[in-house]
């Protein structure tokens, strides 16, 4: 029961609740419950922890499947339960592995071994079966001193120091007499170190600040893809783009126009080009694109201006944008009734788009959850843009969790992030991960703000996840060596 409660509490550390200390207290409780238990019991407690964590933290999957994917409630409930149970295998396997490898844990087990294994499992979850990097501990710390480690080691480095803090709290239960002499100094070192690490500036301004406008169409999904709605949607985006204060860059969300690029009236695009020339403003907008044989579709982003370009989404959403293990799951795709759900992936080495005099690193929807992929556009990109269709999540936790992820990408790269979402919130994030402008959710809105493009290279941009993975392996080796000597 305690393990399940600990898991239930952890999602409150993330947005929109932002109770970031729970990201330390919750794992600390689990670490205590794992101490000197059998591998089987540790696995069971880890599984219950996972049911609580993912059952609450990714509850939005039900909203996507049932309310917007039209899946019957019983089938959607079963699918979500199986999904949550599958994710819960990660903490279960972690509990089993640490108990199996370290049946008699030493003094540093909770401080070195458990945090390192925890983050290694986070990292594995971020790529296994295309990856699901949701609810990593590090994301909860975007507003805490631990965020200072992001530019050095990325979200996994922040997760590591967060988990080490949890391990130190768990150590208090075992050896409270060491609190003043050992535990407290280490806690202070971790947190003061994060503050000092964050005070180092790796990037510099690239040119003058830009005036940007993010267009939030707030188009309901149930009408977006109906042909009779297309003209009204196109007119809405055009009107929102011509009325705001003068901007250097206007960004529309993912698949803003509900038609393939070749189906869009050429006069409409020509009008956007005329506006671009007359007002000296560039457009970046999400479109659906298909090749000449009409067999391959792409979830794309195009730029309209002096330097037109195109980006094709690389990291597709399984079950949402393509059927994995086709034709095994083709039946599920038919039940979900998701429009445009059989995309092809773009190449991994696409150059940044050029707009408003800047090189822009583009991501579509949940691509910005993968820091190792976002940094492919760097260091040449001076600005990050994410376009998204958050209507699939409704009024759930997901849009707020995704903003938190976008803030982490800004911290890791030292680049501002513009995030345009159909139903919002759309946000402007500066290079230090702070939200400087935010739109109301579920409203038609044009969000205008000033943003400063940046240049330079953070250690994370240069080396990616390799240093933190190496660091965790070294910590586990040190702990194993200590155990063998005793």
Describe the structure.
By secondary structure, this protein is an alpha/beta fold. It has two domains: 221 residues, no CATH class; 254 residues, Nitrilase/N-carbamoyl-D-aminoacid amidohydrolase (4-Layer Sandwich), CATH 3.60.110. It contains 16 helices and 14 strands. The strands form three sheets. It has a six-stranded mixed beta sheet. Strands 7-8-9-10-11-12 form a six-stranded mixed beta sheet, covered by helices on one side.
Strand content: 5-15%
Give the overall shape, derived from the CA principal axes: globular
What integer value in Å does the Rg equal?
Answer: 23 Å
Query: Could you tell me the number of beta strands?
Result: 14
State the order of secondary-structure elements, H for helix, E for strand.
Answer: HHHHHHHHEEHHEHEEEHEEHEHEEEEEHH
At the third CATH level, what is the topology name of the largest domain? Nitrilase/N-carbamoyl-D-aminoacid amidohydrolase
Question: How many domains?
Answer: 2
* Structural class by helix and strand composition: alpha/beta
Provide a brief overview of the structure.
The protein has 486 residues and is of the alpha/beta class. Helix content is 46%, strand content 15%.
Describe how the helices and strands are arranged.
Blueprint: H1 2-9, H2 22-34, H3 39-57, H4 60-68, H5 73-101, H6 109-125, H7 150-174, H8 179-198, E1 203-205, E2 210-216, H9 221-224, H10 230-242, E3 249-251, H11 266-279, E4 282-290, E5 297-304, E6 309-312, H12 330-336, E7 353-355, E8 358-364, H13 371-374, E9 383-388, H14 398-413, E10 417-421, E11 427-429, E12 435-438, E13 445-451, E14 454-456, H15 459-463, H16 466-485
Parallel strand pairs: 2-3, 3-4, 8-9, 9-10
Antiparallel strand pairs: 1-14, 2-13, 4-5, 5-6, 7-8, 10-11, 11-12
Helix pairs in contact: 1-2, 1-3, 2-7, 3-5, 4-5, 5-6, 6-7, 6-16, 7-8, 7-14, 7-16
């Amino acid at each position: 029961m305690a393990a399940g409660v600990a898991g239930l509490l952890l999602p409150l550390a993330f947005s929109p609740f932002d109770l970031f200390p729970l990201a330390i207290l919750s794992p600390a409780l689990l670490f205590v419950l794992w101490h000197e238990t059998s591998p089987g019991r540790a696995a069971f407690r880890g599984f219950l922890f996972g049911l609580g964590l993912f059952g609450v933290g990714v509850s939005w999957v039900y909203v996507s499947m049932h309310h917007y994917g039209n899946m019957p409630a019983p089938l959607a409930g079963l699918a979500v339960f199986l999904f949550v149970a599958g994710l819960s295998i990660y903490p279960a396997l972690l509990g089993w592995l640490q108990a199996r490898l370290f049946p008699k844990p030493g003094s540093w087990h909770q401080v070195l071994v458990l945090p390192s294994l925890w983050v290694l499992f986070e990292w594995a979850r971020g790529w296994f079966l295309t990856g699901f990097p949701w609810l990593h501990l590090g994301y909860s710390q975007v507003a805490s001193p631990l965020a200072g480690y992001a530019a050095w080691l990325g979200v996994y480095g922040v997760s590591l120091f967060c988990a080490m803090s949890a391990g130190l709290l768990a150590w208090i239960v075992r050896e409270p007499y060491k609190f003043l002499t050992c535990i407290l100094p280490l806690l202070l070192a971790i947190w003061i170190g994060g503050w000092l690490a964050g005070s180092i500036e790796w990037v510099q301004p690239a040119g003058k600040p830009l005036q940007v406008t993010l267009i939030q169409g707030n188009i309901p999904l149930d009408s977006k893809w109906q042909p009779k709605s297309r003209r009204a949607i196109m007119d809405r985006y055009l009107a929102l783009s011509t009325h705001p204060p003068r901007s250097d860059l206007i960004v529309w969300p993912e698949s803003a126009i509900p038609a393939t690029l070749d189906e869009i009236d050429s006069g409409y695009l020509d009008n956007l080009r005329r506006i671009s020339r007359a007002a000296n403003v560039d457009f970046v907008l999400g479109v659906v694109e298909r090749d000449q044989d009409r067999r391959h579709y792409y979830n794309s982003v195009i730029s309209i201006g002096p330097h037109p370009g195109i980006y094709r989404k690389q990291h597709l959403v399984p079950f949402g944008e393509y059927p994995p293990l086709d034709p095994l799951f083709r039946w599920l795709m038919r039940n979900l009734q998701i429009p445009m759900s059989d995309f092809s992936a773009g190449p991994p080495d696409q150059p940044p788009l050029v707009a408003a005099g800047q090189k822009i690193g583009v991501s579509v929807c949940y691509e910005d959850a993968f820091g190792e992929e976002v940094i492919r556009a760097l260091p040449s990109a001076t600005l990050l843009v994410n376009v998204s269709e958050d209507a699939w999540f409704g009024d759930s936790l997901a849009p707020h969790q995704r903003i938190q992820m976008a803030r982490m990408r800004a911290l890791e790269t030292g680049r501002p992030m513009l995030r345009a979402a159909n139903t919002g919130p759309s946000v402007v994030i500066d290079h230090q991960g702070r939200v400087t402008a935010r739109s109301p959710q579920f409203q038609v809105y044009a969000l205008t703000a000033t943003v400063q493009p940046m240049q330079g290279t953070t250690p994370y941009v240069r080396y990616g996840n390799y240093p933190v993975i190496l660091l965790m392996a070294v910590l586990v080796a040190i702990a194993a060596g200590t155990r063998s000597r005793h």
